[in-house]
Amino acid sequence: MSQPAEIVVEQLTKAYGKFLAVDNISFAVPKGMVVGFLGPNGAGKTTTIRMLTCFMPPTSGTARVGGFDVFHDSLKVRKNLGYLPENAPLYLEMRVAEYLHFRGRLRGMDRGSIKKRIDEVTELCWLSDRKRWPISKLSKGYRQRLGIADALLHNPPVLVLDEPTVGLDPSQIRETRKLIANLAGLHTVLLSTHILSEVELVCRKVIIIGRGKILAQGSPEELKQQCAQRGSGARLVLELRGPADQIRTALAALPGIEQARIISDNAVCAVELSGKLDGAMREQIAAMVQQRGWALREMRSAGASLEEFFVQITDPGAAAAA
Amino acid sequence: MSTTLALARREITGLFYSPIGYIVLAIYLLFVGLLFSLLVLQPGAIADPGPMFQWNHLILIFVVPFMTMSLFSEEYRSGRIETLRTSPITDFQLLMGKFLGAMGFYCVVIASSLIFILILSLFGRPDYMTVLTSYLGLVLMGLLMVSIGLFFSACTQHQILAAMSSCVTLVALGILFQAISYFLGSALGVSWAWLRTLRHVLRYLAIEPHMVNFSRGILDSQNIVFFLTGAGLFLFLTYVVLESRKWR
Ligand SMILES: Nc1ncnc2c1ncn2[C@@H]1O[C@H](COP(=O)(O)OP(=O)(O)O)[C@@H](O)[C@H]1O
Ligand SMILES: [Mg+2]
Q1: Which CATH code is given to the segment(s) A235-302?
Q2: CB within 8 Å: B86 and A87
Q3: Bridge-partner residues for A21, per DSSP?
Q4: Of A115, A150, B90, B176, which is most buried with the most CB atoms under 10 A?
Q5: Are A79 and A107 spatial neighbours (Cβ–Cβ below 8 Å)?
Q6: Overall fold of domain A5-227
Q7: pLDDT digit string, tens, across residues A99-152
Q8: Partners of residue A53 in chain B, C-beta under 8 Å
Q9: Is A18 in the pocket of ligand 1 (CB under 6 A)?
């Protein structure tokens, strides 16, 4: 990556008492990119983010945002940062524009630019028609948008969004994702989420965290490759008509196939293969099947999804076995 | 400075948006009205609002904790503390914003008692100089009371707990210390030196003796210093609590 990194995390650790919520993690977020920070609940995402946003100091290690150290230059970091905390807590009795005005004052913006930016961010976050509403009357989706509008208000180079789509309904989720995807290029975004499809949709880079440790990072494509190499993902499913046990033994005998498993066996027999499953192998399988006279109904690849990769690497059982 | 004022303004408007603000105001007015009609507004008496001010703290002891309880507690409980502390403001600005906001509301509350001065002026001619020093006394006392409330609010996310703790502290300063020192002085005839010292210390820490002068039109630097150092101490303690919370 030739772009300079906007967020640099080095050997960052946070201990709550004896418990290491974040355990010696390092990663970088390139400028102008939307990067997904993915991990199951309790992985340590919020804890990491709270250190990045200067809400609490690291136990050890360093983090720099926009070139400033989160501990030593905390005020400068916070000036350059827009942050949407988990659950976007707000002053419910205030009105939307009034709240944004207050937030602008806290950031030292002058009245003129606050007014201008309120118009812009409410437009951007589809809040224009709610400006005069009391926040208590807004639905969860609108409150979340207000949180994002607040994070964007001072037009910060860096945005940190902690689970921005939690608690939203499907159409709101879609809109929020679209909004975030549109921010790429203009802002550097660190998007925390426990939903894999979210990062596949909006992020060019993914950092996967589990039990306080970084488990994998790279672009979605790189991660797919990585999981194919681990031999964990790629699978081939065949549906054909013939005697199940014969089919299984014949396929398992092919060099390169690690495992053949019968998924179902009624009228048509479905077999799942794993192992080396490149194009040549598929042709070989098709030829063999035809030669044996089994009618081939379908051959499809399955399982090479990030979903499975994610579940596998974040699953405590799998980690213990590894 | 403007960030501090923005915080203060939000705090004042927040109290006026909530029923708590109005309840506090109503209760205060009710009891000042009682003081006024029982001690001040007497047929044939001279127009001296003194007693209304001298005993004002007895009401404020129970009113101020409800003004200050939510200052930090509610930010902790709701999670808004995270939005605040990740904004580019210093802890000192945050502290001062909250403090000034609560003081602003406190001033509105005590200013509401001007109604009674107005009523009094219809019947006679109160000494306006004394009225002025009395209000100055109330504001100075407010600095101490509000900083105590602010401190306990910064200690817990449960606002009722914060209110109760500040109430207990204010009752000690406003009633208990004075009662004990009175008891030590009169009921016990003994004159051990340490007992006398204790009596003096308790009496110095009590609020009422420091309010008497103000309500009589006298400005004594000792009284002013008492309230200012007390407020300074609790503001400092609040700052320490805020700082230490980060490291938990
Ligand atoms: N203030 C805290 N005190 C003690 N443990 C905490 C605290 N906050 C979080 N944890 C623990 O740290 C781990 C990581 O939490 P968190 O960072 O909130 O995860 P995530 O945001 O990925 O769901 C969890 O096991 C959680 O229970
Ligand atoms: Mg979280």
Answers
A1: 3.30.70.1340
A2: no
A3: none
A4: A150
A5: yes
A6: Rossmann fold (3.40.50)
A7: 999 999 999 999 999 999 999 999 988 899 999 999 999 998 899 999 999 999
A8: 86
A9: no
